[in-house]
Amino acid sequence: MAKEGLMLISALMLAATGAWAQADSALIAKGETTFADKKCVLCHVIKGNGGTVGPLARGPDLSTVGAQRGAEWLKAFMKDPKAVNPKAKMMAFKGMEEELEALVAYLGSLK
Q1: What residue segments make up the domains of the chain, in order of their start?
Q2: Considering the chain, what percentage of its residues have pLDDT values greater than 70?
Q3: What is the reported pTM?
């Protein structure tokens, strides 16, 4: 009986993980769309694409930002860049909270 219960718990955990991964994938995809819609690509490069605004306004390459920064840091920085780094040139994120959450998920996935 205990073995069957353990197998059931394992199966439920695997199913929940799959559903969570799908939801996470959808949020990441929405974040990628938000990145394009909000014109972040003008200043930032991801995997060789973007950063076309010119060298004076170019922000850092974000290709691996998810490996370097956590979600809370990314969210705080995008809400108020100068509060996190007084020398930041980036403007504060203008958009809805759900867009910001999606953008953080997308950037966090870049590793």
Answers
A1: 2-109
A2: 79
A3: 0.78
**Domain spanning 2-109: which superfamily?**
Cupredoxins -  blue copper proteins (2.60.40.420)
What DSSP string describes 70-85?
-HHHHHHHHH-HHHH-
Please, which residues bridge with residue 49 across strands?
46
For the stretch 49-102, pLDDT in tens is 999 887 778 899 999 999 999 999 999 999 999 999 999 999 999 999 999 999
Q: Tell which phi-psi region holds residue 51, choosing left (phi > 0), alpha (psi between -120 and 50) or beta.
A: left
Split at pLDDT 50, 70, 90, the class of 33 is very high
CB 68 within 8 A of CB 111: no
109: buried, middle or exposed (CB in 10 Å: 19+, 13-18, 0-12)? middle
State the Cα–Cα distance between residues 65 and 70, nearest whole angstrom: 9
For residue 110, give the amino acid letter: L
